[in-house]
Predict the 3D structure of the following.
Amino acid sequence: MPRPEPTPAIDSDGDSTGSDASLHSLSAEKLEEKKTASHVGDRPRSFAVVAGMGFELAGATVLLAGIGHLVDRYFGEDRSIGFAIGGLLGFGLGMFRFILKALQQIEKSNA
C-alpha cells in the first residue's frame, strides 16, 4: 500500500493530517500502552508494600506493648499501666509510619 504524502497543517491549531497525524496518534497509543503496562506490573508490588505496612503497624504495637509488659513485671505493677502505654505508643508510632508510607506511595503513583 503506498504511503500518503504528508500535508501541512490546515487550521490554526497546528493539527496536521496525513502520515504526520497517524504517527502522532501511534506514539500517543504507545505511550498509553506503556502507562497501563506499568500500572498492571506494579499491582503485585504495590500489594506487597501495603501488606508490609500493615505488618509493620502490628509489629510496632506488639513490640512496644511487650516492652511495656516487661516494665510492668520488673516494677511489680498489678494494673498493667506500662502495657497500656507501650501499646498505645506503639500503635501511634506505627500509624505515623503507615501514613508516611501511604503518602509516599500516593506521590509515587501520581508521578
In short: The first helix runs from residue 19 to 75.
